Amino acid sequence: MDSHIPSPPTRRLSTGERENAIDRTIPLFPPAVEIDEHNYFDNNDPPEYLESMISGVQEFVKFHINNRVVLVTSGGTTVPLENQTVRFIDNFSAGTRGATSAEYFLENGYAVIFLHRQFSLLPYSRHYSHSTNCFLDFMEEKNGKVVVDPKYQEEMLSVLRKYQAAKDKNLLLLLPFTTINQYLHTLRALSVTLQPLRSRALFYLAAAVSDFFVPLHRIPEHKIQSKAGGNKLLMNLDPVPKFLHRLVEKWAPGAMIISFKLETDSSILLSKARQALERYSHQLVIGNLLQTRKTEVVFVEPDAPAHWIRLTPGQEAAGVDIESLIIPAIVKRHTVWIKESGNSA
Predict the structure, then answer these.
(1) What is the radius of gyration, based on Cα positions, of the chain?
(2) Helices 180-193 and 50-63 meet at what angle, rounded to 10?
(3) Which residues are listed as membrane-spanning (predicted)?
(4) Percentage of the chain lying above the pLDDT 90 cut
(5) What are 248-299's pLDDT values in tens digits?
(6) Per-residue burial over 113-152, b = 16 or more CB atoms within 10 Å of its CB, e = otherwise
(7) How many other CB atoms are found less than 10 A from the CB of residue 108?
(8) Nearest in space to 126 (alpha carbons), one of 61, 78, 172, 168
């Protein structure tokens, strides 16, 4: 029951492969402007469910109009290669950061809109899903009934109570996405819907968003046949417009915006995070390295030195979530943001 099966090792590129894998002299894509927004959203249809989804969000915002509300985005987006999708390009993310952070935002008094990749980790259920153990291993049969194994009851009861409290107080709204197009349309619609909250709205953009996509007019209707291109499959993908600046300037003016920067090279993490902050004019970039993302992050803010948040060896050994340190630090900054905006907390 308690044995853990080690994950298969991740293949890393050799030095020669890394040097040839990407041309690092290519300039970054510029932030999207108004014409980019029109070109994308006019030519890539919104998901059919979007209107009904936003109707539910409007009710949620109305209910919490005097409270703090955080939009947490979580998990990776997919890029379909066919309209009737069999194949797609995916982004690496199980949604751990987003799901864990959502729980700590709830503990800190926020209402949470959780925009997540379908079937990725969810707040509270994350403790028992995507585990090396089957969920059924937490249960046993007793007198013909299914009960929780006694050694897990205390922990599961605590998690259950937190989940039920969030539901009973209407503090958690779960919204799914799968594709990059669904994500972008939903993000824009949510941003506009959250505008009445002004500075009480917080955007915590932890989703892994695709950098490239296939425009709708170029997606084949049916499954790509394996023999159609001989030995190779050649794809022509367009860059996904960088809408973060539009979010800051037009979609959610007044809200506090937080983005993430994930790197694998420690020597460029701070410069990349600072560059993102300057390009998009938002309030905070949280930088993290793939190798150490669960034990340390760095806050990069305008006109401030980099601020590292790290688990101590004791906290790491005890299984403390680094998000339990990240979220209170964000709450303090959001409080200052609200006060400086003249909006009530």
Answers:
(1) 21
(2) 30
(3) none
(4) 80
(5) 999 999 999 999 999 999 999 999 999 999 999 999 999 999 999 999 999 9
(6) bbbbbeebbbbbebbbebeeeeeeebeeeeeeeeebeeeb
(7) 14
(8) 172
pTM score: 0.90
Q: Which two tokens stand for residue 83?
A: 């309209």
Cα separation, 51 vs 72, whole angstroms: 20
Please provide residue 257's backbone torsions phi and psi, each rounded to the nearest 5 degrees.
-115, 125
> What pLDDT, in 10s, does the model give residues 115-162?
999 999 999 999 998 666 788 889 999 999 999 999 999 999 999 999
**What's the CATH superfamily of 28-341?**
CoaB-like (3.40.50.10300)
Start-to-end CA span in the chain (Å) = 47
Domain borders along the chain are 28-341
Q: How confident is the model at residue 313 (pLDDT cuts 50, 70, 90)?
A: very high
Tokens (6 digits) for 345:
């907390």
Q: In this predicted structure, what is the pLDDT of residue 225?
A: 82
DSSP 73: E
223 in Cβ contact with 86 (< 8 Å): yes
Residue 267 to residues 17, 177, 191, 289, Cα–Cα distance (Å): 19, 34, 34, 10
Contact between residue 89 and residue 76 where contact means Cβ atoms under 8 Å apart: no
Q: Select the more confidently predicted residue: 168 or 7.
A: 168
Q: What is the DSSP string of 163-220?
A: HHHHHHTT-EEEEEE-BHHHHHHHHHHHHHHTGGGGGGEEEEE--B--SEE--GGGS-
pLDDT in tens, 76-125: 999 999 989 888 999 889 999 999 999 999 999 999 999 999 999 999 99
**Whole-angstrom distance, CA of residue 38 vs CA of residue 34:** 6
> Using H for helix, E for strand and C for coil, what is the string for 8-67?
CCCCCCCHHHHHHHCCCCCCCCCECCHHHHHHHHHHCCCCCCHHHHHHHHHHHHHHCCCC
Q: Alpha-carbon torsion 335, 340, 341, 343, what sign?
A: positive
